[in-house]
Amino acid sequence: MKKLLVRLFCLVCAAGLVFSLWNIWTILSEYREGDRMYESAASQYVSSQPEQQAETDLNKVPIQVDFDHLKAQNPDVVGWLYCEGTPINYPVMQGRTNDDYLYTMLDGSYNKAGSLFLDCAADPGFQDPAPVIYGHSMKNDSMFGTLHDFSKQEYYDAHPVMWLLTPEKNWRLDLIAGYVTVDTDQVYQKLGSVEALQTYLSSVMRKSSFAANTTVDVSKVERAVFLSTCSYETENSRYILVGLPVEVNR
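and the corresponding structure tokens:
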């Protein structure tokens, strides 16, 4: 009887190990598939601007995006977000609900990495005072997995800007603050006016995890883009990175 129990125990342990390994393999396969799909999209629809200078020109968009062909694949594309020297090089989607692209990629396939997506209630041309772009904090640093790195001053110093391109306009996002908050934060309830945005920025600038390399007069800010991902200080924590859009036409 004792030998039988030992054998049963060993079988249960073996089955548990097999299940765990299968689960890990499934997760890694999803990561690889998501990376392949978005790398393919970047290679198809994104190209570097010609005549790039040795030093970064903050008045020149570093990439070009073929939005005509990109939107032909998926008309829900509203932009492209790029941060040089990081994994952030992705299309930005907008669904009818905020669940549409939570686990859905550009090609419509299911993947836990999902997509970067603009809040469903926001203006698709990013003309609202405070549009929010969401993305998962993936363990392989894809999507918004590197957003938390902005909690280190040296990381911010190396990446002080991002680029947000749309079919109509291109913006440089001058990053001014990054902070931990909760999922009931006011920014998720939509800051519907310039005055509300300015009041909000006055409070969050004081708790930024890095010191911005540019002086910001909050009273003159009329629009800011908020990049949001999960954080793990508490069950409902979020990390938000704030960028001020500066229109760039070349």
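(Above: one complete record from the training split.) The chain has one domain: 56-247.
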